[in-house]
Structures are given as C-alpha cells and as structure tokens.
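Q: Structure tokens for this one, please.
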Amino acid sequence: MIDLKEYIRDIEDFPKEGITFKDITPLLGNASAFAKAATALLELVPDVQIDKVVGIEARGFFFGTLLAEKLGAGFVPVRKPKKLPHTTIAQTYELEYGTDTLEMHVDAISKGDKVLLHDDVLATGGTAAAVIQLIEKAGGAIVQCNFLGEIAFLEGRKKLEGQEVKALFQF
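A: Here is the predicted structure, written as tokens:
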C-alpha cells in the first residue's frame, strides 16, 4: 500500500525564510503514487454533475486536468496576472508571506456552472478563498474544494467556511 505523504517533501525556507514548502514533484515523478493520487482525488468528488474543474496555477493543473477529463467537465486555469491571453477578471488576496493576484478568463465559467475547485495543498486558505470569489463573480456554484493535502495547523478551512472541503491527507 502506497502512503502518498511519503512522496511529499518539505523544502525549508521556500519561497522565503520561515516557510516550509510542500513539494509534490516526487509524487508526480512516481507513476504508482501519481496514479493512486489521481484515483483517490476522483473518489473524493460527490456523485453530482460537475461542469468545470478550476485548477490553481500551477500545481493545481496537474490533477485538475485529469479530474476534468474523468468527470466529463471542462478545465479552467486560474493564473497569475498577465498569463492569460483573453479578457480576465482578477482577485487580490493575502498570502502567508505577502499578497498576490489571480486571474481567470471572464468567459471561463457560465452562470450556474457546477464547479470543482482543485489545488495541491490547502495552507492558510487565502488562495482558495480568492478563487472562490472569482468563481462566484463569474456566476459559478462551487460543489467542492478538493486538495491533495492540508496543513491542518494553519486552519485554512476557516477561510473556506460554508464550502465542502476535502483533502486526501493532513500534515
């Protein structure tokens, strides 16, 4: 039996001093772990129609696209400013180490679309909360927020109050 957490390594002081970064690249590089994670993430999704899967740059793209394909849904990338070629909507938010802004194409989500939000790790919840605001601005309805892992002591779920939040494991 594969313990997926064994394939996540800690990188100390990245991206700045005092932050421990959860690096998923060892998991991505191991075919068995990667397949198990993809299957397990799909099993977290409720048995409802999903119209769009929203993946957060960039690590949310790896499994987000796989989930979209398996769910018969479209995929929506959320990116840092000036990375998307069409007209966008933006949301600025607080990080544990500063502020950032994310953008999504203005026409990526239609009013009433049922949306699965996916990212690799739930930390403080600021990034996911900002993306929820983008989805709601576009008229989407969030069905679930889906993560590989959750850093529980950072209490990111508090910023996602009112949302269904699932993670494969906690740190």
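A few notes: The chain has a mean pLDDT of 96. DSSP finds four helices and nine strands in the chain.
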